[in-house]
Design goal:
By secondary structure, the chain is α+β, with helices and mostly antiparallel strands. Helix content is 30%, strand content 25%. Helix 6 packs across helix 10, helix 8 packs across helix 11 and helix 10 runs antiparallel to helix 11.
Length: 788
Amino acid sequence: MAVEEEGLRVFQSVKVKIGEAKNIPPYPGPNRMRDCYCTVNLDQEEVFRTKIIEKSLCPFYGEDFYCEIPRSFRHLSFYIFDRDVFRRDSSIGKVAVKKEDLQKYHGKDTWFQLQPVCADSEVQGKVHLELRLSEVITDSGAVCHKLATRVLECQGLPIVNGQCDPYAAVSVLGPSRSEAKKTKVKRKTNNPQFDEVFYFEVTRPLSYTKRQFDVEEEDVDKLALRVDLWNASNLKFGDEFLGGVRIPLKVLGQAGVHDAWYFLQPRDNGNKSVKADELGSLRLNIVYTEDHVFPSEHYSPLRDLVLHSASVEPVSASAAHILGEVCREKQEAAIPLVRLYLHSGNIVPFVSAIAHAEVNRTQDPNTIFRGNSLTSKCIDETMKLAGMHYLQVTLKPIIDEICADHKPCEIDPVKLKESEHLETNRENLRQYVDRIFNVITTSGVRCPTVMCDIFFSLRESAATRFQVDQDVKYTAVSSFIFLRFFAPAILSPNLFQLRPHHPDPCTSRTLTLISKTIQTLGSLAKSKSANFKESYMAAFYDYFNEQKYADAVKNFLDLISSSGRWNQRSIETPIMLKEGFMIKRAQGRNRFGMKNFKKRWFRLTNHEFTYHKTKGEGALCSIPIENILAVERLEEESFKMKNMFQVIQPERCLYIQANNCVEARDWIDILTKVSQCNRKRLSTYHPSAYLNGHWLCCKFSADSAPGCTPCTGGLPANIQLDVDGDRESERIFTLFSSYMPKLVKMQGDLQDPEADRFCGPDLGAPACTVQERQVQEDQIWKPGASNW
């Protein structure tokens, strides 16, 4: 979420590794096992769901989830659900971590006790109340205290079963509770504006004497106001409780006036408490991050210093390289550096410079790029960002088929099941390996240009450094494209967005065997059998001891490491970028047609955006990408519905409601990126809908009236490389700040005339000359804090 305040932007993100649950209570009945899954929720809004682990009371998930958080929240919650034979889901327990407590668990594997889930305890939101106590003297002289309660508005109420039609019930608690008075129901909103006033007589009418008035004051102090929020339901089970507040009337004080916001609280229903160890526990690793990003001009000196690194001689003396050396994990420096260089368009010179320096330090060509250096981590991150859609079009179809077929491919005799035959399994595995090998080695023309340029640089540096070894120009490239790109994607397709979840154990084993074989085929090693510790893998590899496989690998590597031979071209085969169910409003193609809301299956490729009645059926509507003029959020007040966005076309707008705020953001981002190449993109749009003969935002009556608000899509950009340069600069600054003690020590070593090595062994930096040390000192330590 980006929150702007006086130029400061705050971004929230969360990365969660959902490990495993243990000691889940057994199912009551003869079959005691459960089929469990876990959800991740922002407050009550589900944003992620794991796969179902069947027949287990200690389910292992091992799934990773990352998202940019697009709104404020109070709790990050995790729920364990059980699905029975009738496909009904029942909650077992939950873990709810307050936002302010997330840093306590930052980056740590933590076991959380599951807590009971009660419908009345699942609350969120707040209510704005105004109270006023006054005295009224009747005609008979009696004094009556009256309480005026004004319910102004609520914010952030939960959406229950896809809808929120709230109303408030107000009553006074005391010796005898008053009858509840209710506001009007506000339809289709979780931020209702009530602004209704209710009056209550809070004491018995008594004669107006000093003594009796004192008694009345004591009575008032014992009273409390109760305000409950309910969701009006059409179901036979009645309305649903959303939360409530209890306010003692003594808060009125002598002034008799009180005005405040209150967070809604759960209802104490008197149920027996459940012991902490009765519901089991859940292992989580949570990394919550807030980036506070200042205006761009604040980062200019640091950004210029880092981006100048590719031109520094030697590159080991540059700011970027020094940052990579001081970081404990090279990846924490590689991620922001690569994203910043991609944003500036200078990633190839930087990676070429650090790769050339590493090649010159390498003594054995067989170990080239085999370590976790800054170079390897930067290239890994570049491939992950620039090559994600290349992976999609190359591997996703065959990976989907393998996951759907469930063909037995186990070739380890020890693990072979009784019903399986070794030769049949080998043949199944060989067919899969052949097909994946072929789609990889024939995909060279689709390899992104930035990857080809980097591979060209690696090839040239390796060939120059090791002129005797004729294969080093291939192994330098294959050590990345096969070992660090294709093989890991096959092994863990969920981590590369090829599958939504981890494959089942049987399929996972098949993918492991395929990944091992593809990695060896691409390595062009001298002795293939030596690459396998398992004898059954060495025997299986004999199927592929043909020169045609080596020739195909070399031809593929030649193609993707030949810089400038082609420009990146549009791919003729459609790439499926995103799909899923959402709710859309009828576009009104027929003048008198019904403009109702219906659930549809949406599918986005690099060619078109379509929706279908259900998955697998023909398209009801197809929107070519070139017809998408803009993709923007739709104001909630348009249809009293949250998480809506609009796909603007030349003649009309398609209004869509996503399932949650994270999904809405994802759809808007990917639709915006894929349509940014359209030269006819709009510069302005209408943030509200066209209803009842006018635009709700600007009140213009013409449905073709120009937009009244600037579009947020930005300038055309590569679909894979949409990067916020200022945010990455802030992350680089944070790294420099956190490792300042090491930088100070580094400065001391540089200024020591007797030091013959740059940085001590604890920093792991290479030796350098006196001239290099002087360049390094100039780069890492500029006089005055204003340089950063």
